[in-house]
Amino acid sequence: MPRDARAVAARVIADVLGGRSLSQVLPRLSAEVAPRDKALLQHLCYGTARQGPKLIALLDALLDKPLRQRDRDIQGLLLCGLYQLDYMRTPDHAAVDATVNAARALKKSWAGGVANAVLRRYLRDRDQLQAALAPAAAHAHPEWLYRLLHEQWPDHAADIIAANNEQPPMTRRVNSRVVSATDYLARLGAAGMEARPGTLSPVALTLGEPVDVAELPGFDQGMASVQDEAAQLAAALLEAGPGDRVLDACAAPGGKTCHVLECEQGLQEMVAMDIDAERLQKVDDNLQRLGLDARLSAGDGASPPPELEPGTFDRILVDAPCSATGVIRRNPDVKLLRRSDDLPGLASQQLGILRGLWPLLRPGGRLLYATCSVLAQENDQVILAFTGSETSATVATPATEWGEPTATGRQLLPSPDGPDGLFYALLDKG
Asked: Quick one: which of 58, 188, 238, 335 could link to 193 by a disulfide (CB 3.0–4.6 Å)?
């Protein structure tokens, strides 16, 4: 029997508060709700996470005492209830009643009274509670990130924060091997889907309204893929040419691997490596759908498998694991999961990957370092630390004007209707 969508959302948020990501939790628990409620469940989970720091601050002010650890699901339920009152079209009385009923569905009837009292008090005192919020909480950001954004991007922080609080646009990468962007735009129009060309990538099309990928014309035939316009810039920056051997060292789920292959049909070889062997299956799925070929390799960039011989790659792409602070609008749970003390460990991991992969690059070759972070600790500081210890590495200046120039590369900043916040740096090997 299908379960109450709000009760399931409460469990999802509880798991996120406990340290698990939405991508880990939501697909599994969404199977418990009726098909008609799946969209509601996703809206509740993503919306509550997106506004999480603000909702948590409000809930802390509304509760007389903190909830017990074992009642994290009730905390999740109350956060979802607050989200409904401020960000959904559900009438106030219906949102309160639905939250109370969800407490019963969680088999914690005692929490129904708590939910009723908390939500009704919020409706009564909303203006005063909102006015008392600290600036970071009022803008739905953790304090550490709010501070860093203002320190590192003082002229852009307000726009970054606004973008982080919006739902992302849905952008497609047209497979130029199969169809032109102009023709595919016409196909979308014929299917009743409004779209506009990108401003940075010639094969980017952004849809006016999100749709299921299965509804896209020619998706199963490999005409288009899901990929933000910022990520589509990697292939052009890499400049792989005929006869090159290319390594995508952090490849899953395979978007950049496939785009490089779409752009250059004369590669000698493409190797797609990822530390997660299971996620490599997603790379293979995308390759199969698009009719492309690459050699898959499970391995850690910091200690590459011996099958990848030193000095044999002309181009290496390093899409390094990072804080994801440039793609918060797509991964709003970052606001709840990341901490400032995560940054040194991530920077150390990124530097280790660069050092592990550099010997695989031939002299005269090029490495493209990319992150979906907007923080210097993972971007410029990592590149400067690497080039400071590796004498054969030289920072190259990308021949482009998009984004913001930094000490070692270019930084795209997230904008409500534009690309995600990605960083790129080019390293040439002498």
From this structure: 188
- The residue assigned the tokens 């590669």 is 267
Global model pTM greater than 0.85: yes
Please provide the DSSP assignment of 116-154 as one string.
HHHHHHHHHHHHHHHHTS-HHHHTT--HHHHHHHHHH-T
* Strand-pair category, 313-319 with 404-405: unpaired
Helices (H), 297-410: 334-337, 343-357, 380-389
Residue 250 DSSP label: T
Active site residues: 372
pLDDT single digits (tens) 157-187: 999 999 999 999 999 999 999 999 999 999 9
Contacts of 52 (CB under 8 A, 6+ apart): 79, 140, 332, 333, 335, 336
- Helix (H/G/I), strand (E/B), else coil: 32: helix
pLDDT tens digits, one per residue of 110-137 = 999 999 999 999 999 999 999 999 999 9
Residue 204 contacts residue 172 (beta carbons within 8 Å): yes
Provide the 10 A C-beta neighbour count for residue 385: 16
Give me the phi and psi of 366, to 5 degrees please: -135, 135
Q: Which two tokens stand for residue 191?
A: 């299917």
